[in-house]
Task: structure prediction
Amino acid sequence: MTRIIRTAVFALSLLLPVTAFAAQARYQLQVDGLACPFCAYGIEKQLTRTDGVKNIEIDINAGTVTVTMAEGAAMTQAQADRIVKDAGFTLRGFSEVPTQD
Amino acid sequence: MMKKLFFSTFMGLAATAALHAPARAHGPLFSPAPETIFKGGTELTLGLHTEEATGTSEHETEYDVTVEAVYGLTADWEAGVEVPYTKRDLDGGGDANGIGDITLDTKYQFWGRNLPGAQYKASALLKVKLPTGDDDSHRPTTGRGSSSFITSEQ
Result:
């Protein structure tokens, strides 16, 4: 019985790091200047050209862009700043948000 | 024959451009806007213009199909080219068609301020119209036969 429990605990301990690596990083970018759907189009184009970006959600009214990265990929604030600037906007805030499960 | 082929090709390209042309931002429809396209962005626009003029002894009709391509060099600086295909009919004076005067333009946004949900921008625009159209004076022409410059601040 003890052996079964030990094996089960060991198996679970192996699964934990796998779950941690499988998580996809999500970031919320607070963008100034987002005023119309064309603005959203421009910033979306810039983000889709970025390696590792899997999904983009843009809320024009809130001025936020939520970016979900592919597994193992990450985004830095400097990278986000460059992307937003190339699209013609200003990055006001950058934060990592909990993944949606 | 060559002109017919050229016209068909041009119309085909124009139709392709129309299918892929995104609506330009929040600028005015009939005057230049200060917005510039994003870095690396491209925009194709198809324009159609017709004009009729009646003088004391003659009547003239002009049709222009224009394809405009714009490229974003940076987020603040864009360059473009405008190629018109012109057809002019002059009652009693023949007709002409072909490439009109090609326009090269560039726009630079020298000031901008982004706020939550709003943008304030100021740009300078330079347009150069080249004398690429036919300016044969014995029939209706498709070009002016001279260069012209347009500068503007928005």
